[in-house]
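[recover] target loaded
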C-alpha cells in the first residue's frame, strides 16, 4: 500500500514581499475582463446535469426498494429451506422486516450491547428469552474458566482454519447495494461449538453449516454479531470434530459504501454524464465489510469468486475471468479462476465501465491498465503500462521467483484512500498516481508515478506472495516496497542514482525528523485491537523500515543481501513469515560467504527500540590517533520526558555499524567499519594527523546521525569550501542534514549549519542543494513570522544568488521527452529557482510574473513544465486577485490530474486572507475538491505564514466534520493533524493546542501527542536559540 507522499516541500513565498510586488499588483499588468472572470466562481450546484442525476437517483431508489423487497422474500424462502436442511437459520433478527437495508446492514443488531439481545426479543418473543439464557450460560462458563469468550478476544480463536472460499456476488450499481453468498471450507484444529469469523456492516440473511457434502448439516443453535471485535458468531448444537472439514454457507447483503473502505463506490464524469464504479479496499481490516471471512493475514486460503452485474459494466478480480454467463435480462455473471493461497487483505474486485490497454511480459504475464475511457484514449496510461511490463521482468530476475499469477491489472480510480493498493493481480491506483500525460507532466510528477508503481509491484512478491504473519511487522512488507521504489527506479533510469542519493533526502532525512521525537514508536509495534491496525501504516513503518533495510543491505553487501532475499521468498512463498524468519535466512546467506553476524541480535535493537542514536566522535587531545566514540538517543526536545516512563533515554543502546574515513585537503581514505555497541568506546585511527578530519557514516548508509568536536566541524567546513568533491555527494548532503538537525535539537551551535551552506555557491550536484532546501524549510517556518525574519531571508538569498544566475531558467521544450531530459540538472535548476522565488529574488519574481501574464493574455500556457508549480504559486502570491481567479478557473477546466493538483496548491499561496478563507471553506465541498485533496489544501494554507492561523482555526472549527470524514483512514487524519500543527511555534498557539486536545472528540490521539511535542520543541527552540541565530546572522551580513 502506498501512502500519499509529498515528495518535495515547497516553501510558499514568504511574507517579506518588498515594494515591487505592490507595484506589480497595482500597476502595469491589467487583466482583461475575459470570460474566465465570471466563470471562475464556484459552480452552481443545481445544473441541469444535477437535476438529471437527481431524477435518476429517485428512480434508482424506487427500484432499490422493490429489489430489496424481492431480496428479502427470497431470503425468507431460503431461510425456510435451510431450516428444512436441519440448520436453524438465524440471521440478524431484523431480516424480513420492513426491507430497509441500510439500517440493518450498516449497524449489526446489538451493536454496543451484549450479543443480540433487544432485537431478538423484538422479533422472536419467547425464543429470545431462551436464547438469552443460553447465552448467559455461555458467558458464565467462560467466566468460570476465567477466559474471554472466543468472540471477545482481539484475535480470532485458532481452532478453525479456512481452506477455500467460494464467493458469489451480485452488484446492484443502480442503488449501490450488493448481495453475496460465501461458502467457506473449514478445517477443524480443535473441537468447538463456535464458529467465529469477521463480518462487519452487513446484513446476514441465512447461515448453514454442513459436514462435507454428503454427511449433511450441523444444526445452528443461534448466531449473533459481536461488534466490539467486528465478528459474527455461529453457535452450533454440537461440536465440530477435529480433522474433519465442514462447509459454512452465509447469505448476506450490504451497501456499496460511499466511504472509501470495503466495497465502495466512486464516480467520474464522461461526456457530461456521471458514471459510477465500485471497487474494493480491504487492507488492512476491511474485507470483513464485503464478505464474512477470517480477516487476518495468517489465514491464507484459496478463493473462487463470481460476480454478477449488469452487462453494461465489466467486472475484475485478482484472477482472470474463466467464463461469463449472460442472462436474457441484461445481466452477466463472470466466474474468475481460483486464486493461489492468499490472505484476505489483498483480495479485490471492481465493477466499472472502464476501457483498457494491454501488454505482455517476456514470461507471458498479461498486463492491462484499466481507466476511464477518455484517459485511455488520450494515452495517459501508456507510461504506467510500459514500465510495469519492464518492472515485472526486473523483479522476476532480481528475486529469481516468477510472478505468480497469469495477469496483472492496474486500475486507475478517481477516489481512493491511499495512493495505491497492491491487490495481487488487481492493483488499484488513484488516478494522480498512475495516469501521466507526458506533454504536461513535470519530472517530479513522473517520479511520483514511477515510484508508486515500483512500490506496488514489489508487493506482488513482498506482501502478496510472502505475507507478514501479523500487522506488527507491517514494515516487513512496507519497508521493502519503499526501499525497492529506489532500487526499481534505478533499474528504469540507471543515471538517476536513486538508491544512493535521493533515498537520503526523501526517506532517511525525512523519517529521522519524525523518529527524533520522544513520542515516536518502534518500527515493530504491538497491535491488539482492530482499531490499532490502521495506525501501524505510518512513515515509521515505511521509511524507517526502508532505511533499516538499506543499512542492512550495506553492511551485508548487496549481492549477499540479494541472495538472502531470494532464499527468503523461495522458502516462504504462498505462506507467511515473521521478522525472525527473514533474519535467519539472511544470517545463513552471510554464513555461506564466510561471515558471521547475528543479524537478529543486531536488528532487534533497531526494530524493537524507538528512535535512533547520535554518534559523537571526539578527537583525543593527548594522543592524536585515539578517538572517543559515544552514542546516545537523539531527541529534538531533551526536556520532554521519554514516552516509556520505566526507561530513560540513557538506557537506549544500539549495535551500530559505523563506517569511518580520514581525509585531508585532497584525499579521503577508504572506509573502515567499527561496530559500536557501548555507550562510549576508544578506538585507534592510525592515519589520523594534525590537519586531517574524520568523517563518519560514509555515504549515509547508516540510520543515525554523527556529531564531531567543533575543531573537526571546522576542518570539514574548510574542506567543503576549498574542494568539496573530496567528500562524496551523499556525505555532503548528509553533513548538511545532520548539522541543521543537530543545531535544531541543541547539540550544535546554530551557526555551523549556516556556515556549511556557504559552499553551496560552488555545488553543482542536486542532492546537497535538495538536502539544504529541505533542512531550511522547518527553520524558515520557525522564523517566518518573526520581526527579524528579513535578516535570515537576506542570508539565504545571498547563498542562492550566484547559482541562480549560473543556471538560469529552463526553456519549454514540449517535444523533448521528460525521460530523456537530464534529470539531475533539471532538478537542480528547479531547486535553485524554488529557493530564489521563495526567498524573494527579484529576478525570479519578475520572471514568474511575466510567464503568468503571458499565459493570461495569450491563453497559451508556455510555462516550462518542471517549474509550473513554482511559477503558479509565486504568481498567486505576488499578483492581484484576478490571477487567483484565473488559476481557480483553470483548476476547474483542466482534466489532466497532475495539472489540477498543482493549480489547487497554487491557490493556497495567496497572501490575501479572504481568498485563503474562501478556499478553506470550499475545500470541504466534495463537488469542488476531491476528498483526498481537501487535506492538502488545509495543510498548504497552514504552511503559508499568512494562512497559518486561519488553517489552524478552520481545523479546530471543522474538526468534527474532518474527523468523521477521515477518521477511519487514520493515515489521512494524522497527516492532517501534523500538517496543520507542525509549524505552530508560539506559547499562545501551544496553549490553544493543549486546550483543543482537552475538549476534542474522536481518534488521532497519537497524532495529537506528537503534535504537542513538536510545538513544544518549536517553542523551546524559539526561547533558547532564536536570538543566538539572529546575532550570528547580523554579524555575518555586515562582514
Ligand atoms: Zn505498500
Amino acid at each position: 500500500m502506498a501512502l500519499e507522499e509529498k515528495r518535495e516541500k515547497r516553501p510558499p513565498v514568504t511574507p517579506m514581499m518588498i515594494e515591487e510586488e505592490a507595484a506589480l499588483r497595482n500597476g502595469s499588468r491589467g487583466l482583461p475582463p475575459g470570460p474566465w472572470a465570471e466563470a471562475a466562481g464556484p459552480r452552481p450546484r443545481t445544473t441541469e446535469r444535477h437535476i438529471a442525476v437527481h431524477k435518476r437517483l429517485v428512480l434508482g431508489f424506487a427500484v432499490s426498494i422493490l429489489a430489496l423487497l424481492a431480496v428479502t422474500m427470497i431470503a425468507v424462502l431460503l431461510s425456510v429451506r435451510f431450516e428444512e436442511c436441519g440448520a436453524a437459520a438465524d440471521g440478524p433478527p431484523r431480516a424480513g422486516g420492513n426491507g430497509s437495508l441500510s439500517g440493518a446492514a450498516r449497524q449489526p443488531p446489538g451493536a454496543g450491547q451484549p450479543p443480540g439481545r433487544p432485537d431478538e426479543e423484538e422479533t422472536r418473543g419467547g425464543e429470545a428469552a431462551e436464547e438469552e439464557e443460553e447465552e448467559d450460560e455461555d458467558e458464565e462458563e467462560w467466566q468460570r474458566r476465567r477466559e474471554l469468550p472466543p468472540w471477545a478476544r482481539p484475535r480470532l480463536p485458532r481452532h478453525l482454519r479456512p481452506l477455500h472460499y467460494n464467493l458469489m456476488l451480485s452488484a446492484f450499481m443502480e442503488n449501490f447495494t450488493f448481495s453475496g453468498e460465501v461458502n467457506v471450507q473449514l478445517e477443524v484444529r480443535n473441537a468447538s461449538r463456535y464458529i467465529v469469523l469477521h463480518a462487519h456492516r452487513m446484513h446476514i440473511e441465512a447461515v448453514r453449516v454442513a459436514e462435507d457434502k454428503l454427511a449433511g448439516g450441523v444444526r445452528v443453535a443461534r448466531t449473533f454479531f459481536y461488534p466490539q471485535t467486528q465478528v459474527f458468531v455461529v453457535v452450533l448444537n454440537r461440536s465440530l470434530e477435529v480433522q474433519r472439514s465442514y462447509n459454512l454457507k452465509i447469505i448476506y447483503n450490504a451497501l456499496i459504501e460511499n466511504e472509501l473502505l470495503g466495497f465502495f463506490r466512486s464516480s467520474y464524469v464522461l461526456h457530461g454524464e456521471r458514471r459510477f464504479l465500485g471497487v474494493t479496499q480491504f487492507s488492512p481490516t476491511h474485507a470483513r465489510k464485503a464478505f464474512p471471512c477470517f480477516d487476518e493475514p495468517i489465514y491464507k486460503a484459496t478463493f473462487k469468486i463470481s460476480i454478477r452485474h449488469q452487462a453494461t459494466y465489466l467486472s475484475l478480480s485478482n484472477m482472470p475471468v474463466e467464463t461469463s454467463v449472460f442472462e436474457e435480462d441484461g445481466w452477466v455473471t463472470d466466474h474468475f479462476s481460483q486464486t493461489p493461497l492468499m490472505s484476505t487483505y489483498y483480495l479485490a474486485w471492481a465493477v466499472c465501465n472502464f476501457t483498457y490497454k494491454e501488454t505482455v511480459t517476456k514470461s507471458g504475464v498479461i498486463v492491462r491498465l484499466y481507466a476511464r475511457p477518455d484517459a485511455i484514449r488520450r494515452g495517459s496510461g501508456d507510461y504506467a503500462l510500459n514500465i510495469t511490463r519492464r518492472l515485472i521482468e526486473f523483479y522476476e530476475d532480481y528475486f529469481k521467483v516468477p510472478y505468480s499469477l497469469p495477469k496483472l491489472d492496474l486500475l486507475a480510480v478517481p477516489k481512493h484512500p491511499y495512493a495505491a493498493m497492491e491487490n495481487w493481480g488487481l492493483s488499484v491506483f488513484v488516478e494522480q498516481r498512475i495516469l501521466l500525460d507526458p506533454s504536461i507532466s513535470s519530472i517530479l510528477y513522473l517520479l511520483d508515478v514511477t515510484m508508486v508503481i515500483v512500490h506496488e509491484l514489489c508487493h506482488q512478491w513482498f506482501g502478496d506472495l510472502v505475507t507478514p504473519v501479523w500487522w506488527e511487522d507491517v514494515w516487513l512488507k512496507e519497508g521493502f516496497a519503499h526501499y525497492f521504489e529506489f532500487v526499481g527506479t534505478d533499474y528504469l533510469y540507471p543515471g538517476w542514482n536513486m538508491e544512493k542519493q535521493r533515498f537520503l533526502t526523501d526517506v532517511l532525512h525525512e523519517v529521522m525528523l519524525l523518529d527524533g521525537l520522544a513520542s515516536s514508536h518502534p518500527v515493530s509495534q504491538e497491535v491488539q485491537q482492530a482499531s490499532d491496525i490502521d495506525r501501524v501504516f505510518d512513515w515509521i513503518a515505511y521509511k524507517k523500515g526502508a532505511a533499516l533495510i538499506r543499512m542492512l543491505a550495506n553492511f551485508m553487501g548487496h549481492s549477499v543481501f540479494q541472495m538472502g532475499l531470494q532464499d527468503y521468498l523461495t522458502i516462504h512463498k504462498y505462506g507467511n513469515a515473521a521478522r525472525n524468519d527473514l533474519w535467519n535466512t539472511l544470517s545463513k546467506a552471510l554464513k555461506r560467504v564466510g561471515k558471521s553476524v547475528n543479524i537478529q541480535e543486531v536488528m532487534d535493537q533497531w526494530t524493537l527500540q524507538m528512535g535512533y542514536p547520535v554518534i559523537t566522535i571526539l578527537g583525543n587531545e593527548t594522543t592524536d590517533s585515539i578517538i572517543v566514540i559515544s552514542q546516545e538517543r537523539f531527541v529534538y526536545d531533551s526536556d520532554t520526558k521519554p514516552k516509556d516512563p520505566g526507561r530513560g533515554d540513557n538506557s537506549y543502546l544500539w549495535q551500530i555499524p559505523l563506517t569511518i574515513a580520514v581525509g585531508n585537503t585532497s584525499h579521503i581514505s577508504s572506509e573502515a567499519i567499527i561496530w559500536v555497541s557501548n555507550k562510549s568506546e576508544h578506538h585507534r585511527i592510525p592515519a589520523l594527523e594534525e590537519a586531517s578530519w574524520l568523517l563518519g557514516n560514509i555515504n549515509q548508509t547508516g540510520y543515525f546521525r554523527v556529531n564531531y568536536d567543533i575543531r573537526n566541524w571546522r576542518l570539514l567546513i574548510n574542506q567543503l569550501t576549498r574542494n568539496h568533491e573530496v567528500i562524496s555527494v551523499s556525505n555532503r548532503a548528509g553533513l548538511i542534514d545532520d548539522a541543521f538537525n543537530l543545531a535544531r535539537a541543541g547539540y550544535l551551535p546554530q551557526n555551523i549549519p549556516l556556515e556549511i551552506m556557504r559552499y553551496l555557491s560552488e555545488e553543482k550536484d542536486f542532492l546537497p542543494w535538495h538536502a539544504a532546501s529541505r533542512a531550511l524549510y522547518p527553520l524558515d517556518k520557525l522564523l517566518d513570522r518573526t520581526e527579524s525574519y528579513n535578516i535570515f531571508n537576506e542570508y539565504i538569498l545571498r547563498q542562492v544568488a550566484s547559482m541562480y544566475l549560473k543556471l538560469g531558467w529552463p526553456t519549454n521544450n514540449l517535444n523533448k521527452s521528460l525521460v530523456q531530459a537530464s534529470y539531475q540538472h533539471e532538478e537542480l535548476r528547479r531547486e535553485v529557482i524554488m529557493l530564489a522565488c521563495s526567498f524573494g529574488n527579484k529576478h525570479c519574481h519578475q520572471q514568474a510574473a511575466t510567464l503568468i501574464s503571458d499565459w493570461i493574455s495569450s491563453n497559451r500556457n508556455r510555462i516550462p513544465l518542471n517549474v509550473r508549480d513554482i511559477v503558479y504559486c509565486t504568481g498567486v502570491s505576488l499578483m492581484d486577485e484576478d490571477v487567483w481567479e484565473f488559476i481557480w478557473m483553470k483548476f476547474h477546466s483542466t482534466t489532466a490530474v497532475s495539472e489540477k493538483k498543482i493549480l489547487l496548491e497554487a491557490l493556497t499561496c495567496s497572501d490575501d486572507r479572504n481568498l485563503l478563507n474562501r478556499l478553506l471553506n470550499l475545500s470541504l465541498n466534495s463537488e469542488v475538491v476531491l476528498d483526498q485533496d481537501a487535506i492538502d489544501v488545509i495543510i498548504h494554507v497552514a504552511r503559508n505564514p499568512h494562512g497559518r492561523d486561519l488553517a489552524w482555526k478552520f481545523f479546530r472549527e471543522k474538526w468534527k466534520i474532518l474527523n468523521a470524514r477521515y477518521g477511519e483512514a487514520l493515515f489521512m487524519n494524522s497527516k492532517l493533524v501534523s500538517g496543520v500543527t507542525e509549524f505552530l511555534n508560539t506559547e499562545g498557539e501551544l496553549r490553544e493546542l493543549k486546550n483543543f486536545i482537552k475538549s476534542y472528540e474522536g481518534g488521532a490521539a497519537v497524532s495529537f501527542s506528537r503534535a504537542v511535542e513538536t510545538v513544544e520543541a518549536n517553542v523551546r527552540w524559539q526561547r533558547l536559540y532564536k536570538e543566538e541565530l539572529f546575532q550570528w546572522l547580523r554579524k555575518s551580513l555586515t562582514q
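[recover] notes: The chain is about 45% helix and 20% strand.
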